[in-house]
Amino acid sequence: MAEKLSHIKLLVLLVLSISVSYTEQFQSSQTQTLLRIQHLLNYPPFLKSWNNVTDFCNMEPNSTLTIVCYEGSITQLHIIGDEGAPRLPNNFSIDSFVTTLVMLPSLTVLRLVSLGLWGSLPSKLTRLSSLEILNLTSNFFHGTIPPEISSLTRLQTLILDRNNFTGGLANSLDSLSALAVLSVKNNSLYGSLSDSLGNLENLRVLALSNNKFSGEVPDLSSLANLQILDLENNALGPRFPAVGNKIERIVLRKNEFTFGIPQEVQSYNQLEHLDISSNGFVGPFPASLLSLPSIAYVNIADNKFTGMLFEDLPCNPDLDFVNFSSNLLTGKLPSCLRPGSRNRVVLYAGNCLVSGDNNQHLISFCKNEALAVGIIPHHEKRKVISKIALALSVTGGIIVAIIVVGIVILVVRNFIAQRAGHEPPSRFVEENASTSYTSKVLRDARYITRATKLGALGLPAYRTFSLEELEEATNNFDTSTFIGEGTHDQMYRGQLKDGSFVTIICLKMKRYHGIQHFMPHIEIMSKLRHHHLISSLGHCFEYYLDDSSISRVFLVFEYVPNGTLRSWISEKQIKRKLTWAQRIAAVIGVAKGIQFLHTGIVPGLFSNNLKITDILLDQNLAAKICSYNLPSLGEYMGKEHLQSFLSGSNDLKSARVNHQDKFDIYDFGVMLLEIISGKPLNSRNKVEVLKDQLLSSIIADDKLRESVVDPVINRSGSDESLKTMIKICCSCLNNDPVDRPSIEDVLWNLQFASQVQDASRGDFQSSDGSPISPMQSSHLKLTIKQ
Ligand SMILES: *[C@@H]1O[C@H](CO)[C@@H](O)[C@H](O)[C@H]1NC(C)=O
Ligand SMILES: *[C@@H]1O[C@H](CO)[C@@H](O)[C@H](O)[C@H]1NC(C)=O
Ligand SMILES: *[C@@H]1O[C@H](CO)[C@@H](O)[C@H](O)[C@H]1NC(C)=O
Ligand SMILES: *[C@@H]1O[C@H](CO)[C@@H](O)[C@H](O)[C@H]1NC(C)=O
Ligand SMILES: *[C@@H]1O[C@H](CO)[C@@H](O)[C@H](O)[C@H]1NC(C)=O
Ligand SMILES: *[C@@H]1O[C@H](CO)[C@@H](O)[C@H](O)[C@H]1NC(C)=O
Ligand SMILES: *[C@@H]1O[C@H](CO)[C@@H](O)[C@H](O)[C@H]1NC(C)=O
Known about the structure:
The chain has about 775 residues and is of the alpha/beta class. Among the domains are: about 260-375, Alpha-Beta Horseshoe (Leucine-rich repeat, LRR (right-handed beta-alpha superhelix)), CATH 3.80.10; about 390-460 and about 520-535 and about 565-775, Transferase(Phosphotransferase) domain 1 (Transferase(Phosphotransferase), domain 1), CATH 1.10.510.10. The protein is built from 20 helices and 33 strands. A 13-stranded mixed sheet has the order 1-2-3-5-7-9-11-13-15-16-18-20-22, covered by helices on one side. It has a six-stranded parallel sheet with strand order 4-6-8-10-12-14, with no helix packed on it. One 2-acetamido-2-deoxy-beta-D-glucopyranose (NAG) binds near residues 166 and 188. One 2-acetamido-2-deoxy-beta-D-glucopyranose binds near residues 302 and 326.
């Protein structure tokens, strides 16, 4: 028994002695590590006192040096050098430094500030897997932030300010679920912000200022704890960021935000500091901001905010700083902001306010500038003759549903219109206007594919129109220019100063809708530009100056003068029928238009319910689709949809999976059928019958074919190309969408048909024998060979 006991004692002793020596060893290794750090940092003065007998765990913490131990292990290391400390000499190695640091595996807090550290941050730093706070402010790190940093799952604070990190923020930040502070100010980071930022549920501070980030700010509204959003001095925009209503500080200064302040801002009850100066914001300034319950700082300087201020506007008594300078505000400074009422700073130079000082512009300046974005006081409603031609509807102030643009009606469009594309906008205000936001939209590569750019060649740039300009173009919306009307809209024909004709659609709004409600829609409109579409040319907003709402939206489209495709093929009283070659050229144009609707914009527009009467011909007989299926703004305003719209995730692939793209193929087949048969087809039954006849005519003799096919073709078309066309037509009309060809297949076959036709005879005679002018034929050829 005694023997046994002594055995146990021995064992305990052994264990004790092992653990003691272990701790000693451990501590001495920590000491060595710190001394090595001292060496690697080139013995800075504030570490001079360190030596092999320093008791690191029991040092008095001070502002330059703090070491915290827990059970003998170092858990916190703070070394703060002198501000502006120079870069360490060339023999410094960040790799050796980090290799040394990771010998302190219990570190939870690491703060190495202003130490002159340089190099690219080695990813092995992530071996410090207990890290909760990492602060590397004011060093000389360069290269990318290692994406491995997202494996530090305990990280709560990541501060990399004032270095020279480049590249983007990792996409995998979501795994940092504990992150509360993310600050990368004053670096050279660039690229768009990852949506994964929106998943950092615990984030309180997001500070990205003084970098080169660009593009939209991802939706941050699910970050319920976000208090500080600092995006100053990047290239972000144009949409105001969506944040939760615990936000206290929003700094968007010096970016490319333009789309106005959203309604939600009115619910930011904890917002103290709002700095959105030096952006391109347009639209009315919501004066209710001044009376938010916590607001103390408002800076909207250097934008294009419009609207009228009133003397009796309320403000929060705690408001200390207001800078309205360099906007387009009119009216009177609210008396609660007058100097003297409190020790506050109020700046408002460079507006059109009524005030004693001479730092204000004349009211006409603000009016003219405002016109550049279509802001105008009340306008009386004008009488119009009713004559429905267009089905545009507006519900609840929001443009809704399918926009069918420009059915029919179109007179001669001048040649000057074509030249207009190469001329800069003629007036100063217009130029100004178009740079304000739409050009940003167009510049943004995400919105414009190569196809769009190529297809839109020759069209004048999308721009903002001033109301004045539209009034001039329509002789004050004179009834003689009226061409049609829907429930909430009217359509006019106008002639711009450059001589070109346009179609102007005027949508009357119910009140209480700000610019931001319309911008997503406008964005879509601005992308609908292609040689084979009736393209959008621009828009104009009309505001009420006395409240923050839009009264009318004007959409400006091309005006195409030459009648519908049917009117050139199968209408009763027809002046001149298209030859076979011209017909092929026209349908190639239509197919290109469809291809653009499917693939040239994101998300694509499918199921456009196309009819031959929706195809207009311009003066060069180029076909343009004038009716397409535009999803409603209401739909787009749903967050999910908007998201997928902006990210382009609702794409062609999914449409192809459920054969949405094949509905347009069928409709296209019906058009081909009418072009081949020369007979107006208005019922599905008729289509089926003709299709069957055509099908059998391919195998049968020429006699049967001649009876089905338009006689014009029998005179002007080659047999080979006709056969090809009949085959495409019938396969487009397959009852099972799966069996219908893709639009690319269709295009290929059409182009083949056109080539064999060209080869067989250069037929540039119209059917009535009158030669078409050389210019027109060369254009036609061009279209075919594109
Ligand atoms: C770097 O070079 C300096 C002298 O130029 C020397 O004093 C220092 O010890 C070197 N540091 C390292 C880490 O080798
Ligand atoms: C902080 O403490 C370290 C060592 O204890 C010492 O070398 C340093 O000079 C101190 N710094 C200040 C600012 O007191
Ligand atoms: C500490 O350093 C001194 C000289 O730098 C040396 O003489 C001494 O042996 C060292 N002590 C230990 C315990 O390493
Ligand atoms: C990070 O370091 C900087 C510079 O010393 C300091 O201003 C900041 O408060 C630190 N942040 C945290 C969370 O430690
Ligand atoms: C930061 O890095 C970029 C690219 O590497 C370089 O052009 C720039 O000069 C660096 N800036 C500083 C302050 O070191
Ligand atoms: C951060 O960058 C901005 C702009 O480049 C500069 O004005 C500012 O002084 C920098 N801040 C610090 C603390 O270096
Ligand atoms: C207010 O805004 C104007 C215009 O941007 C600017 O020049 C001025 O410095 C600003 N004043 C303050 C105190 O920020």
